[in-house]
Amino acid sequence: MDKAKLKTGIQKYTMIIVLFLVTIFFTWGTQGKILLPQNITNLISQNAYVFVLATGMLLCILTGGNIDLSVGSVVCFVGAVGGVMMEKMHLPVGISVVLMLLLGAVIGAWQAFWIAFLRIPPFIVTLSGMLVFRGLSNVVLGGQTLPIKSEAFIKLFGGGANCYVPDFLGGDGLNRVALAVGVIACVAYIFITVRGHMNRVKKGYETGNVGAMYAKILVICAVILFVTMKLAQHKGIPTSLVWVLIVVLVYGYITSKTTVGRYFYAVGGNEKATKLSGINTDMVYFIAYTNMGFLAALAGMLTIARLTSAQPTYGQNYEMDAIGSCFIGGASAYGGVGTVPGVIVGAVLMGIINQGMSIMGTDQNMQKVVKGLVLLAAVIFDVVSKKKSE
Amino acid sequence: MAKILLEMKNITKTFPGVKALDNVNLKVEEGEIHALVGENGAGKSTLMNVLSGVYPYGTYTGDIIYNGEVCKFHDIKQSEGKGIVIIHQELALIPYMTIGENLFLGNERGKKAAINWDETYGMADKYIRQVGLTESSRTLIKDIGVGKQQLVEIAKALAKNAKLLILDEPTSSLNEQDSQALLDLLLKFKREGMTCIIISHKLNEVSYVADKITVIRDGSTIETLTKGVDDFSEDRIIRGMVGREIADRFPKRPGVKIGEVNMEVKNWTVHHPIYTERKVVDNVSIKVRKGEVVGISGLMGAGRTELAKSIFGKSYGTNISGQLFLDGKEVHLKNARDAIHHKLAYVTEDRKGDGLILSNPIKTNTTLANLEAVSEKGIIDKDKEYAVAVEYKEKLKTKCPTVEQNVGNLSGGNQQKVLLAKWMFADPDVLILDEPTRGIDVGAKYEIYCIINDLVAAGKSVIMISSELPEVLGMSDRIYVMNEGRIAGELSAQEASQEKIMSCILRSSDRK
Question: Is CATH 3.40.50.300 the right assignment for the domain spanning B4-242?
Answer without folding.
Answer: yes
